[in-house]
Amino acid sequence: MNNTDLVKKSLGKRYLKERIFRTLGLLSIATAILFLVFLLTDIASKAMPAFSQTKITLPIYLDTDELGVGASNSVEEIGQADFRRVIRDALLAEFPEVSKRQEKRELYSLTSMGAEFQLRDRVMDNPDLLGQTLEIDFMADDDVDAVIKGSIDRYLPENDRRVKDQKLDWIEQLEAEGRITTGFNWNFFANGDSREPEMAGIKGAIMGSLFTLLVTLALSFPVAVAAAIYLEEFAPKNRFIDFIEININNLAAVPSIVFGLLGLAVFINFFNMPRSAPLVGGIVLSLMTLPTIIIASRSAIKAVPPSLREAALGLGASKMQSVFHHVLPAALPGILTGTIIGMAQALGETAPLLMIGMVAFIVDIPQSVVDPSTVLPIQVFLWADSPERGFLEKTSAAIMVLLFFLIAMNAIAIYLRKKFEKKW
């Protein structure tokens, strides 16, 4: 066998190994995509019912005597009126055969516990409705909602399902009369958290996440960019600077729960800052995000060619002018990309915020950075741990919203990089 044959044989083996390696790589990517699609499909299939809400339409007579409202129709009187009673009267009028106390209790549970507050708010907005008979769509109880959506199989034996035959008969009668409808669940985006699944929403968690990220951005961005500029452009090369650079890289790998312990020990226990507040959460997340933004900013500054600095200095610019007028604008797209990625990482963090008490059950919508609040990842954690069946779909829906924000932030980072990136 001559040298040419040996070379051809070896080339055949190398090409075969290359094809095998390429095939394995493609299989790995395809497997990863398949699992990702399976995961997203599973989450979406469980989340879709949360975006619809079952409603029961009832004729309500707003009798002022029964409500206990005087002629003045003042806001205080309307706020204290017994709206639960008129809703119960409307249900009894639909099913007059119900007489026993236990049956009445089951009948009243067809509508949500928030139905009376829904009616109260509507009358407070328009007191002229008093004395009239209205057709009002009330939120259905989570069990009724589950039956309508098919989460509870109505064809199972009575002992194998949560909704009993009598209640199921009432639901089917209301369906036959056209009094049960479904529509988009705006309450999911307009309400805060609740013990009742049909009333629970993510507005409080979204506002908490927004306030927390605003504090994080306000603290971490200027400090990180200033540190990156100093270390890359002005810092002398010595052991102390090397020590700082090593520790910045090490901080980027520190588990996030360590920052939560730091926030608990320093900001809450030592400085007595408010627990469960976005202010503390933002400070903790800014400490965690700083190394990421510093490293990304230093890389963006380092990517600016030295010729740009030398040209500015050659035309008489000072060191400060060359950095802030020429180098920093050229590096800004990379800095913004790193910052957005750091913010996306902060948005998905849970462990450090658990340590500072943002796991508390918060009903009210936060109005400032010092109000008690929670964030989207912790809201998912709270609902996932709830024994109520109705929170299963809420958990998946909140995950979808969180993924939407994360994907949007990463898409913005990619767009900025592609649009403003310069080829040197």
Question: Main attributes?
Answer:
mainly alpha, 5% strand, 2 domains, extended
Can you put this structure into words, describing what you see?
With 424 residues, the chain is mostly helical. It has two domains: 52-184, no CATH class; 203-420, MetI-like fold (Orthogonal Bundle), CATH 1.10.3720.10. The chain has helices spanning 3-47, 64-67, 75-79, 83-94, 101-108, 115-125, 142-149, 165-176, 187-190, 203-234, 239-251, 256-270, 278-302, 306-314, 319-347, 351-355, 376-384, 390-420; strands at 52-61, 133-139, 180-184. The two termini are 51 Å apart. The relative contact order is 0.10.
What does the secondary structure layout of this molecule look like, with pairings?
Elements: H1 3-47, E1 52-61, H2 64-67, H3 75-79, H4 83-94, H5 101-108, H6 115-125, E2 133-139, H7 142-149, H8 165-176, E3 180-184, H9 187-190, H10 203-234, H11 239-251, H12 256-270, H13 278-302, H14 306-314, H15 319-347, H16 351-355, H17 376-384, H18 390-420
Antiparallel strand pairs: 1-2, 1-3
Helix pairs in contact: 1-18, 10-13, 10-15, 10-17, 12-13, 13-15, 14-15, 15-18, 17-18
Describe the structure concisely for a colleague.
The protein is mainly alpha-helical.
Strand portion, in percent? 5-15%
Tell me the major beta sheet: 3 strands, antiparallel
Tell me the count of domains: 2
CATH first level of the largest domain: Mainly Alpha
Average pLDDT for all residues: 88
Radius of gyration: 30 Å
Element pattern in H and E: HEHHHHHEHHEHHHHHHHHHH
SS content category: mainly alpha
With strands numbered from the N-terminus, the spatial order across the biggest sheet is 2-1-3
What does the oligomeric state look like here? Answer: single chain
Topology, number of strands: 3
| Fourth-tier CATH superfamily name of the largest domain | MetI-like
Stretches where pLDDT falls below 50 for ≥5 residues? none
